[in-house]
Amino acid sequence: MSEKPNIKPNSKPNFKNSDIYKTFWQGLRPQKGLFLTALVGYLISAVAGVFVPLYYKDFFDVLQNSVHKSADSETLTKIILIIAAIHILQLIVFRSATLTMNYVESRTMAKLRQDAFNYVIHHSHGFFADNFTGSIIQKVGRFVRSFERMLDTVVYEMLPLTIAVIGAIIVTYTIAPIFSVIIGAWVIFFFSFNLLYSKFMVKYNLASAAADTKTGATLADSIGNHATITSFVGQDFEKKYFKEVTEDQAKLGLKTWNMQQVSTIFQNFLLLFVEFVVFYYAIQYWKNDALTIGSFVLIQAYVINIGNRIWGLNRIMRTFYESISDSREMVEIMQAPHEISDAQNAQSLQVEKGQIDFKNVSFAYGTANASVLNDVSISIAPGEKVALIGPSGAGKTTMIRLIMRLHNATSGMILIDDQDIQTVTQKSLREQVSLVPQEPVLFHRSLKENIRYGRQTATDAEVFEAARLAHCDEFIDILPHKYETLVGERGVKLSGGERQRVAIARAILKNAPILILDEATSSLDSHSENLIQEALEVLMKNKTTIVIAHRLSTIRKMDRVIVMENGSVREEGTHASLIAQDGSLYKKLWDLQVSGFIS
Ligand code: ADP
C-alpha cells in the first residue's frame, strides 16, 4: 500500500473503446426512435442559433445606413420580432427535446444497470471469490453514471459546438474567407490539442478510477468486517489502513487536476490570441470599407459564442475520456466470458436414483495454484448417506463445490446417474441438488421470502410447513412481525443456528433428490443442536446425502464415512469398521475429538 500508486492501465491490451459504445448502444437501442427524435430537436435548436447573428447583422446594417428613420424603425422592429420568434421556437424545441431525452436517459440507465446485473450474476463462484463485492457494486454505479455523463456531453456540448462552428465557418466565408480560415484553424488546433492531451491523460484518469474503486472496496471490506474489527480492537489499524488508501487516491487526484490546469492555461492564451487576430483583421477590413458594422457584429458574435463553448472543450473532452475510463472496468467484466457455461446442446439432468460417481477427479484453483484434489474416485449409491471428514484444508468443501459445478474439475469426471455433469445444464444440475451451507447468508428480506427461496412457487402453507419441519417456527413465532420480519443484511439479526435452520427449511421446500450439507463447526447449545438434528433427519429421508460432518452425532447416522487428507481419499468405511482399524486417521481424529466434535 505504501508503494507508488500504479498509473498503468491494468486492463486487457485488446480492449477497444468501441466496446464501450457498443455496450451503451445495447442499452439505448430500445429507445432509439425517441433518441433520434430528441437529437433532431437539438439539431434544429442549434441551427436556429446560427441564424440569430445574421438578423443582428441586418439590424446593425439598417441602423448604419438609415436615411428614413420612421420607415427604418419599422424594419428594425420586424427584425427584432423575427429574432424573438426564433428564440421562442428554439426554446420550445430545445425543451421538448430535453423532456424526451430525460425519458430516454432514465430508461437507458435502468436498462444498463439491469444488463450489468444480469451478466454479473452469472459469473462463477471463483469470480466472486476473486473480486470484492464493494468494488463490483461501485463499478456498476460508475458504469451507469458514465453513460449519463457521456450522453450529456455529446448532446449538450459537442453537438451545439459542432453546429456553431460549421455555421460560423459557412456564414463568415460569404463575408470574408479570411475569417472562416481563422475560425477553422483555431477550432482544428484547439480540438487536436485537446484530443492529444485528453489521450495523454487517459492513463491518469484510469489510475484515478482504479484508486476510487480501491477506496470503495476497502470501505466495504472494513465495514463488512465490523464485528471482527470490534472484537480485535482493530479500529486504529483500520483507520490507518483506510487513511493510506484515501491518501493515495488524493495524491493521484491532485496530480490529475494539476495536469489539467496546465492545458487550461495554454488554452486561455490561445483564445485571447484568436480574439485579438479576429479584431485586428476586422478593423483592417472596416478601414477599407470592406466590412459593414453589421458584419463586424456578426463575426464578433460568432467568435464570442464559439469562444464560450470551446472554452469548455477541455472539460468536455476530459468528461468524455473520464466516462470511458469509468465505464471500462465494468464493460470488461461484462465482456469476460462466464467461467462456467453450459455445453452446446446441454441436456437437462435426469435424476431417478441419485447415484454420484467421482472418476479420477483432480482439481486446482487456477493454473498457478497447487492441486487441491488428486485423482479422487468414489461412488455414492442412490439414497446412501455419506460423511466427508478430514483435517481442515483436505478438500472437502472443494468436492461439494465441484458437485454443484461451481468450478469445473481440472481432469476426470463427475457423474450423476451416469450423466457427466459437464454435459448437462447448470440450471437442471442445481435444481436437483440442495445445499445447506455451513454459514448460510440470508437476504435482507422477510423470513418468509428467505424460506421461499427454496421454491419460489411454494404456497404460504408450504412455507410454514417447511419452517415447522426445520424447527424455525420456534424462533419465528416469538418475533414481533413473525414471518414478515426482516433479517438484517446477510441475516445478521439471527443466530448461526437459526440461520442454518432457515437454510434447512429452504432445502425441505426444494426437496431435491441429492442433499449436500456443510455442517456448522461452531458448537450450538444442546437445544438448538437437537432441533437441527431432528430437522436434518426429516431432510435426509430418501435422499442421497453428503455431509461434511463435524459432529459425532451426525457421523454415527451415516452409512459410510469417507476420510479425506491432502486432496485424496485416505480411508472409507462405516464408523464401526474405521474405529476398529488400528492406526487409522479416523481413529486418531476420533481420539482427539472434544465434546462431540471432530475438527
Ligand atoms: P476443507 O473443506 O477440507 O477444509 P477446502 O476444500 O475448503 O478444504 O480447501 C482445500 C484447499 O483449497 C485449501 O488449501 C484452501 O486454501 C484452498 N482453497 C479453497 N478455496 C480456494 C479458492 N477460492 N482459491 C484458491 N484456493 C482455495
Protein architecture, described:
The protein is an alpha/beta fold and 599 residues long. The chain has helices spanning 17-28, 32-65, 69-120, 125-130, 133-175, 177-224, 226-231, 235-287, 293-310, 313-335, 396-403, 426-431, 447-452, 460-469, 473-476, 496-510, 526-540, 552-557, 575-580, 585-592; strands spanning 356-364, 371-380, 385-389, 411-416, 419-420, 433-436, 514-518, 544-548, 560-565, 568-573. The longest helix is centred in the middle third of the chain and has 53 residues, at 235-287. It starts with 16 loop residues before the first helix and ends in a 7-residue tail after the last helix. Residues 1-11 have low confidence and may be disordered. The structure holds adenosine-5'-diphosphate.
What does this entry show, briefly?
With 599 residues, the chain is α/β, with parallel strands linked by helices. 63% of the residues lie in helices and 10% in strands.
